[in-house]
Amino acid sequence: MYKAVISGVGSYLPERILTNQDLERMVETNDEWITTRTGISERRIAAETEATSDLAYQAAVAALQDAGLTATDLDMLIVATSTPDYQLPPVASLLQHRLGCRPISAFDVSVTCIGFISAMETASQYIQTGKHKHILVVGADALSRITDYADRTTCILFGDGAGAAILSRAEPSTDQGVIHASTHSAGEHFFSLYVPGTGSRQMMPEEAAKKGKIIMEGRKIFKLAVTSMSQTVKETLEASGYDQADLDWVIPHQANQRIIEAVAHNLELPLEKMVSTIKYYGNNSAATIPVAMDTAIRDGRIKRGDLVMLVAFGGGLVWGSLLLRY
Ligand code: ACO
Fold first, then answer.
1. Whose CA is nearest to atom 46 of ligand 1?
2. pLDDT along the chain (326 residues), means of 10
3. pTM higher than the cut 0.95
4. pLDDT in tens, 209-267
5. Whose CA is nearest to atom 32 of ligand 1?
6. Ligand 1 pocket check: which of 37, 82, 83, 284 to mutate, most ligand atoms within 8 Å of Cβ?
7. Helix, strand or coil for residue 212?
8. Which residue's alpha carbon is nearest to atom 33 within ligand 1?
9. What is the pLDDT of residues 252-294, one digit of tens each?
10. Which residues are catalytic?
11. Domain with 232 in it
12. What segment(s) does the record annotate as region ACP-binding (predicted)?
């Protein structure tokens, strides 16, 4: 089997910053509550003229540049998003055209906040079998478009952004590349985090009155997140023949700093090994992991050869992890 190695990464965050102080003027909240309960100080919000494909495009261009590739080198592209520009067709088609790719296979995956992990897992299969050489994987979301800015329990958490990685084929002898991934779904928790009044249920009487914004049972999701993320890291390590002590870095979904800390505690990992960007960007769903990965590679923390665990949970409930050697 070939190896699927990360050959380039990139990210893009919109310019507009929404601070805790801004939110104090919008809902009954305060900086101290938000900071201590979530670890978030600010988040980025896409301009009115920016859609998910625009965020994805900027991140993709940066990743191509980092890999030293051009768009015509790509054999496939996958966009993970829950906030596509339109209900159909996929963001991936817009991106394929705008980047100037050949008429390659391009599709979206919708797996909420684990979307980037699921897309990386899928892409790595195409590379490892030898079918493709270079695949672009993007996680991009504009959660501000489905956030209710009158609901203080959710609007303090979410933001917009995009991150991208290119997986490239390498010889089986290299020790770099994707090692193992585990992904799961437990639909009995479906309505603990969802966007009512959208999709093919929008005409149903019980949905019609609702408004197309995220509804969430925060406390329940918090507990499920800690348990599922801790469990999936252990399962992926076990399947790969590694243990916690071997990990150089964990890149967790950025949903709440207290979730990140609880997972580190459960796994008996020092907090310094958990990459966190939540303070500045909040939760931008499928983008959190590739943005954090790009940040930690660029600032020199993650180096070639490091063992890195990606781990996430999201609405569905879905959860998963992916182990790679950078
Ligand atoms: N400002 C001030 N007070 C608030 C705010 C706020 N923004 N929000 C809630 N409160 C109040 C509540 O009303 C409650 O008051 P009460 O005790 O008088 O009833 C009190 O603060 C405590 O509320 P809790 O919900 O228990 O607060 P908690 O510590 O659980 O924090 C939070 C809430 C931040 C939502 C947390 O539960 C959380 O992060 N959950 C996970 C959510 C998540 O990660 N969602 C994303 C999933 S990924 C995806 O798919 C998009």
1. 255
2. 98 98 98 98 98 98 98 98 97 98 98 98 98 98 97 97 98 98 98 94 80 94 98 98 97 98 98 98 98 98 98 98 98
3. yes
4. 778 999 999 999 999 999 999 999 999 999 999 999 999 999 999 999 999 999 999 99
5. 218
6. 37
7. coil
8. 218
9. 999 999 999 999 999 999 999 999 999 999 999 999 999 999 9
10. 113, 253, 283
11. 177-325
12. 254-258
User: How far apart are the CA of 261 and the centre of ligand 1, in A?
Assistant: 16
CATH number at 162 reads: 3.40.47.10
Tokens 């590379």 belong to: 127
Number of folded domains that form the chain: 2
State the complex-level ipTM. Answer: 0.96
* Cα–Cα distance measured from residue 64 to residue 7, given in angstroms and rounded to the nearest whole number: 9
Q: Are residues 47 and 127 in the same domain?
A: yes
Q: What are phi and psi of 86, to 5 degrees?
A: -135, 160
- What does each C-alpha distance from 213 to 144, 150, 151 come to in angstroms? 9, 10, 10
Considering 124, 150, 170, which residue would you say is the last residue of a domain?
170
Which residue's alpha carbon is at the smallest distance from atom 24 of ligand 1? Answer: 219
Pocket of ligand 1 (CB under 6 A): 29, 33-34, 37-38, 112-113, 152-153, 156, 193, 216, 218-219, 221-222, 225, 255-256, 283, 285, 314-315
Say if residue 143 is in the same domain as residue 208: no
Cβ–Cβ contacts within 10 Å for residue 103, how many? Answer: 7
217 CA → ligand 1 middle, Å: 8
Which tokens belong to 210?
């609702």
